[in-house]
C-alpha cells in the first residue's frame, strides 16, 4: 500500500514534533485574532502561499476549505461552518477567496462519472442515485467564470436567512503562483 508509508512518515515525524515541543511556537486559542473567517479552495498551491500572502499566522483566522471555495448549498457544512464562526467563535467578517487555474473551473460531470465507472462504480448504482434525485450534472459541475463563482458564493452567504446583520462579506481571487489578490466584492461597500 503506497499510502501506509506516508502514514508512517507522518506518525514518525509527529512523535518527534511533540517530544521536542515544536508546538510551543504555535500556541494560540480557538478564537481568531483577526476576527475573520475565510472560505478558500483546497488547492495544494495555496496550502502555505495563501496564509503567507495575506500575512496570516496560526490563530489569526478560521479557515474553511473545499473544492473551488464554493458555497453550493445554503444548509450544507460550509454555510454551517461560516455561521458557527460568526455566532460562536467571534468572527466578524467573511472572506471568500477563490483562485485562478482552479480544478473546479470548467469541471463537467461526464468525465468524473466515466472515471467512477472505470474504477468500479456500477451503472446500477448510478441509476439508483439518479432515481433518488441526485443530479450528477449539477452536483459535479464546477464553474465557468471564477469571478462569477465568487460573486455567487458571496451572495449566498450575504442573503442567507440566518446571517447576523452587519457582517461584511468580501470576495477575492488569488493567483496560485504569485499570491496576488484581486478584489471582486468589497463587503465594506454595502
Ligand atoms: Zn481550486
TrEMBL record:
UniProt xrefs under Pfam families: Pro_CA
The protein's enzyme class:
lyase
Family of the protein in this entry: Belongs to the beta-class carbonic anhydrase family.
Does this entry carry the keyword tRNA processing? no
Cofactor descriptive note: Binds 1 zinc ion per subunit.
Q: Tell me the protein's name.
A: carbonic anhydrase
Q: Which reaction does it catalyse?
A: hydrogencarbonate + H(+) = CO2 + H2O
EC assignment: the record states 4.2.1.1
Residue positions annotated to bind Zn(2+) are 41, 43, 99, 102
Q: Which residues form a coiled coil?
A: none
Cofactor or coenzyme needed: Zn(2+)
Question: Which terms are listed as keywords in the entry?
Answer: Metal-binding, Zinc
Molecular function GO terms recorded: carbonate dehydratase activity; zinc ion binding
Originating species: Neobacillus rhizophilus
